[in-house]
Design brief:
Layout (H helix, E strand, L loop, with lengths): L1 H5 L3 E6 L2 H10 L2 E4 L5 H11 L3 E4 L15 H25 L3 E7 L25 H18 L5 E7 L1 E3 L13 E3 H13 L4 E5 L9 H6 L25 E2 L1
Parallel strand pairs: 1-2, 1-9, 3-4, 4-5, 5-8, 6-7
Length: about 250
């Protein structure tokens, strides 16, 4: 949100919670309180906003993992946000005449390949043969990615994030071989709005499992970006002060 506001955009932020809506307002957004599954209300709200870009960064996950890992029930609720919530959000974007749709995805759900294959690129298939909890996540991701990329005339951008770390996430430090700092993830979203590029982009630090070369080349993304780096307004776009975004 700080990057979009610095670029001159007006940002509409959706939340079910009045407390979160108040936070959005303090941060400079126009808060909208409603539930993603309230189809009619959501379409009305987005049509009223008349956005240039609609961004799906929603999840239904606990604030901490203090009780252990994610249960299948949690994963199913999160997949529903992607499948059902994503479908309603795309319909709303189309009804509002938006130009672009940006969606959050995951960079660690690729199908297994021989070790000699090298880092995964965006052209590699996802693990459609997965079973158990992984299958739930794959199903949600596949549905949302398809909606994002095949809802003409929307320009669709899929950001396959690595495992987030940093302030406000489950981990203060990078873990595993597909991490991404939360600031760098947000930077990719801001770049996706500013860019004319479309398609799928791996957004993760390159530690041997995935390649982010496409994001670096086409979006100008850098995994070491931190919000403090942008204090001087590097993302500012005075040529586009009136674009509306969620």
């Amino acid at each position: 949100m700080p990057q979009l506001l610095a670029a001159g955009h007006t940002v509409f932020g959706l939340s079910r919670s009045p407390e979160r809506a108040a936070l959005l307002q303090r941060l400079g957004a126009v808060p909208v309180i409603l539930d993603i599954y309230d189809r009619d209300a959501l379409i009305r709200a987005i049509c009223d906003a008349q956005p240039h870009t609609v961004m799906h960064q929603m999840t239904d996950l606990p604030q901490t993992l203090a009780g252990g890992g994610l249960s299948e029930e949690m994963l199913a609720s999160n997949a529903r946000v992607r499948i059902e919530g994503g479908s309603i959000l795309v319909d709303a974007a189309l009804a509002a005449g938006a130009d672009s749709f940006v969606a959050q995805s995951l960079a660690w759900l690729y199908a297994p390949v021989p070790q000699a294959h090298g880092p995964y690129t965006e052209q590699d298939p996802l693990d459609l043969q997965a079973t158990g909890p992984t299958a739930i996540s794959v199903g949600g991701v596949v549905a949302l990615e398809s909606l994002t990329l095949h809802s003409s005339p929307l320009r669709g951008v899929v950001l396959r994030y690595g495992m987030l770390y940093g302030p406000g996430t489950w981990s203060a430090t990078a873990n595993g071989n597909v991490p991404v700092h939360v600031d760098a993830a947000a930077y990719a979203a801001a770049l996706a709005v500013a860019s004319a590029a479309s398609g799928i982009f791996n957004i993760a630090e390159e530690r041997g499992l995935v390649s982010a070369e496409k994001a670096r080349r086409e979006l100008g993304w850098q995994p070491d970006y931190r919000l403090a780096d942008d204090a001087a307004g590097a993302m500012r776009r005075p040529d586009a002060p009136d674009q509306l975004l969620r």
